[in-house]
Amino acid sequence: xxxxxxxxxxxxxxxxxxxxxxxxxxxxxxxxxxxxxxxxxxxxxxxxxxxxxxxxxxxxxxxxxxxxxxxxxxxxxxxxxxxxxxxxxxxxxxxxxxxxxxxxxxxxxxxxxxxxxxxxxxxxxxxxxxxxxxxxxxxxxxxxxxxxxxxxxxxxxxxxxxxxxxxxxxxxxxxxxxxxxxxxxxxxxxxxxxxxxxxxxxxxxxxxxxxxxxxxxxxxxxxxxxxxxxxxxxxxxxxxxxxxxxxxxxxxxxxxxxxxxxxxxxxxxxxxxxxxxxxxxxxxxxxxxxxxxxxxxxxxxxxxxxxxxxxxxxxxxxxxxxxxxxxxxxxxxxxxxxxxxxxxxxxxxxxxxxxxxxxxxxxxxxxxxxxxxxxxxxxxxxxxxxxxxxxxxxxxxxxxxxxxxxxxxxxxxxxxxxxxxxxxxxxxxxxxxxxxxxxxxxxxxxxxxxxxxxxxxxxxxxxxxxxxxxxxxxxxxxxxxxxxxxxxxxxxxxxxxxxxxxxxxxxxxxxxxxxxxxxxxxxxxxxxxxxxxxxxxxxxxxxxxxx
Length: 547
Fold this sequence. Notes:
A five-stranded mixed β-sheet has the order 2-1-3-5-4. The protein is built from 23 helices and five strands. It has helices at residues 2-9, 26-37, 54-69, 83-96, 111-122, 128-152, 155-172, 179-198, 207-220, 225-241, 245-273, 276-289, 298-312, 316-319, 321-327, 332-350, 364-389, 400-413, 418-436, 438-454, 469-474, 492-503, 520-529, and strands at 460-464, 477-478, 509-513, 530-533, 541-546.
């Protein structure tokens, strides 16, 4: 009940006087009248359109370009990819060769995600994915900028937190190629859409586009369904409290129609491939049943993930959320949506059982949005205090450069400069690990050359190695659904399935990284059914050939 009252009473709807006449229901009209007369610390809205300044658009372009160029899809940077990123590339590459995700490869991303990777390989190079990365980050940056600028009434703060959004994407998800990052444009577009809808500036028919984008996002990253499910509930509560039953039903029909436009096309391909049940099991059920992306000790990884969260600044908005609601009356509906999405996203992220922090990307935009609101409150309170001390006058107007610097300083100093440390460590770690793996990667290249010279395109291999580089270099298929022994094998069922696939002896060659721990049954099987191949300058790997 408390939530319902806050949810309803907190929404402020103000008509844009410069726009065309908007027809309100009787209840909306009363809301508008009440909102216009209600005292609030927030500045009344007169416009719901946020124009991105040319200089800010240029900054967003540059940040997006950097994200695209630093993608592990870039062949020059593929060696810096982590096991999960490698498997994504492998799955798309195999799909371009006619092998099916979910059936031939265990996959947790959406169908469209792998289809785009496959298309890139079909066109001849993973370089095309750099373009996809650029476009995804550019559109994400634009909508994120609009949301922050609108909710804080400060475009400079919008630009500052957009820059932080990019930097934390680099730190938490260096190299990109994560499904959620490609789904961000649709998620943030939907959040911007709902911001305007709850303000009474969206026609019901526009929910066709909402359903369309929501379906695209779910088919890129199924975990984005957290946001779409919560937004669906929020919209339902909003319409119920306003007694818009017929309107809500009409919106539902529009969303379903928009979803059908996507599923009709994509579903045709999925059904035609005959892997629908596997798709549902892996991309949907597995994603929401198994949070672990590694097999490290939860007692260590859980506090580690929480420490990274605290240092990144994503928790400030979480803990300061209710205080913010007590200060600002506007747009509580959207803020509640961001809050609950953040909560569920954090639950998934912190239980990843891995030292990799890319699972936190799902929470990133929502955590930053709420944090920006709290930071904005602090700045406004400080400005109000200075006005009182100086009799309400300012000596001079702060420049854009100064204000942006002030927002960043408030954010960084409020977290004891830990966000800077997280960004530096997050970006530096994969680079350092890549440099330290130069000799190992050289051996992987030599083994790849040997396999290409002694196999055909239809040959099957298995590589017991955290890197999938040998698969990518040779273009050969893995004998197992789990080409990488450490990806998606945290459950006993999947790890045993991986072992069983190897024990079937379908692989002509098996490559083993000597530093990796192999189950005793697999090790004994290899010694009995395979022979070692001696290769020059191969200190880190053992190559087995089937007898």
